[in-house]
Write a structure and sequence with these properties.
- Helices cover about 75% and strands about 0% of the residues.
- It is mainly alpha-helical and about 200 residues long.
- Helix 1 packs antiparallel against helix 2, helix 3 packs across helix 4 and helix 4 crosses helix 5.
- The radius of gyration is 19 Å and the shape is globular.
- The two termini are about 30 Å apart.
- The N terminus and C terminus are likely disordered.
Length: about 200
Amino acid sequence: WCSIFIFHIVNLLFFVYSNNINSLLLLVFQFFINIFVVALIVRIIMIPIINIVFVNTTDIPFKEYKDDYVYHQVANDLCTEWENGNWTTNIGNNLTKGNYSGYPIFSAFMMYLFGKSYLVMRFINAIIGAIIAVVLVKIAQRLYFRRENYILVAALVTLFPVSIFYSITNYKENLLLLLILLSLFSFIKIMNRGQIITNIFV
């Protein structure tokens, strides 16, 4: 329902601004929105499927009692501290201090906003995964790939099993990849234009 809601909101915006936006730019923007929506729908559909697979193999909705499970537990504990009024980012766990603290703190913040369920980060990562698909296609476009080539890039990143897996689990690699790709995209724009433009859809 989230993806359908987003799709209708976007269509409403297109209708409101249809007389003010160049038709070619509108089509390009629609293309990237379609990539985002399709990638998001695929990932949302896969979330309950991967949960069933995990429960049947490990008896918990996580791949193993390691990274994804530990990230969730640490984020949950940190979120509990915040709910009790203790606004700390360090609860004595190695994953809440130093180089490894970023993702658990991010996860805790999302859980603080949307609820202390492992599904929160599954859906957040699904959204991040859909954004990654758009950014990758934008990078391909900036590198002057032909249209059929970056359409292939869109299809691969949207449907590639490894990409989907990391987009619907609690691993940090999904967020890390997005940040790397955004940095690369900014660098390419600097090289192409000689300036930084913050709007990714320009």
